[in-house]
Structures are given as structure tokens and as C-alpha cells.
Design goal:
This protein is α+β, with helices and mostly antiparallel strands. The chain has two domains: 4-73, D-amino Acid Aminotransferase, Chain A, domain 1, CATH 3.30.470.10; 81-188, Alpha-Beta Barrel (D-amino Acid Aminotransferase, Chain A, domain 2), CATH 3.20.10. The chain contains four helices and eleven strands. It has helices at 18-32, 37-46, 100-107, 150-157, and strands spanning 4-11, 14-15, 55-62, 66-73, 81-86, 113-119, 122-125, 130-135, 138-142, 162-164, 176-180.
Length: 190
């Protein structure tokens, strides 16, 4: 049985974007026939509190039940460089704990460098975040991401970003690239 995880930003002691995380857990549970995890996950988040105003990363690993909960202080460091890496037919449609392939890519990059992953010249994601490219003052995210992230979906729902087939040629047109995930907002990129 594969193991999955969710990473949730905790700010001022409260888990954020619970609705989006629950949607992904429910979709995963449905696909892999995990009968009780969605309710357990929801109850765990409803009862989770930290008495602190710092930013924390809450990680919940699960199968049919919650296997592990980990909480760590979090600080985002902007990458300064990127490297394009073609991932051919690699798929990561669900948030599997097994991320060895992605971790190996990231480990082999120079410090302060993020991988921009592509398939057939179409940009998908980075190794740990969805991508947004700013082109002519508009914000675009790849229409075919490696993983449909919770923050990405929230920004799409709120019309802050737009889907677009982005190619490696668009990297030369962009003013800036942004990383977004449960822990990183557009505004966190400097």
C-alpha cells in the first residue's frame, strides 16, 4: 500500500487552507480505496493547535490511517537560479511519500538552484513546488503540472493565476518565476 502525505502551513497556531488539503485527501482516498482516512484527517486538523505565532510546517503521513505527524518551524529561502530538467515520462499525480526521484534531482543541483521540470518542452513544476511565471504583468501556471498543489488550486479559484501551456521558450519572456505550495505564497518570493 502506498503512503501519502500532506504538508500544511500553520500560522498563528492555526492550520491554513484545510478545505484544499481535505479535497486532495478525499480524492486520494477515493482513487486508492482508503475508506476512513478523510474523516480521521479532518478530525486531526480540527483539533490541531500550536500556542505560538511562528510559521510551522505540519506534515501528516497516511495510508488507511494517519501514520505519522511531524511539526517543524519553517523558513523559506528564495532560490536564485534555475536549471531545466526533462523528466520524460515521470508521473507524480498523488502526493506520495516516496519522492526519491525528485529528491535526487534536487540534491544534485547547486545551492540556491531550483529545478524547472519539463516534459516535451512543456513546463510542469519544480521538485517541491508549483511554478508561476510572470509574463507581461500576468501570472501563469503550467496547465499540466506534475502535482496539482493546494495553493495553486486556491490561486486558480481566486483568479490570481491563469492556466497556460508554458514552454521553455516562455522562460525567456518572463519577468520573474515564483514558487508556490502549501508553505509558500506568491508574496513570499522576493
Amino acid at each position: 500500500m502506498p503512503q501519502f502525505f500532506e504538508t500544511i502551513k500553520v500560522l498563528e497556531g492555526i492550520p491554513l487552507n484545510i478545505e484544499y488539503h481535505l479535497r486532495r485527501v478525499v480524492a486520494t482516498a477515493k482513487h486508492f480505496n482508503l475508506q476512513y482516512i478523510a474523516k480521521e484527517f479532518e478530525n486531526t486538523l480540527a483539533n490541531f493547535k500550536i500556542e505560538n505565532n511562528e510559521v510551522y510546517k505540519l506534515r501528516i503521513d497516511y495510508t488507511e490511517k494517519i501514520e505519522k505527524i511531524d511539526v517543524q518551524k519553517y523558513h523559506f529561502t528564495n532560490p536564485k537560479f534555475y536549471k531545466i530538467i526533462d523528466i520524460a515520462d515521470y508521473n507524480y499525480n498523488y502526493k506520495f511519500v516516496n519522492r526519491h526521484y525528485l529528491e535526487k534531482i534536487q540534491r544534485n543541483l547547486p545551492e540556491n538552484t531550483i529545478a524547472i521540470l519539463t516534459k516535451n518542452r512543456l513546463i510542469t513544476d519544480s521538485t517541491y513546488a508549483n511554478l508561476v511565471l510572470e509574463i507581461d504583468g500576468e501570472y501563469f501556471t503550467p496547465s499540466q503540472p506534475l502535482l496539482q498543489g493546494t495553493k495553486r488550486q486556491q490561486y486558480l479559484d481566486n483568479h490570481r493565476i491563469t492556466l497556460r501551456d508554458l514552454t521553455t521558450d516562455d522562460l525567456f519572456k518572463m519577468e520573474k518565476f515564483y514558487l508556490i505550495n502549501a508553505m509558500i505564497n506568491l508574496e513570499d518570493n522576493h
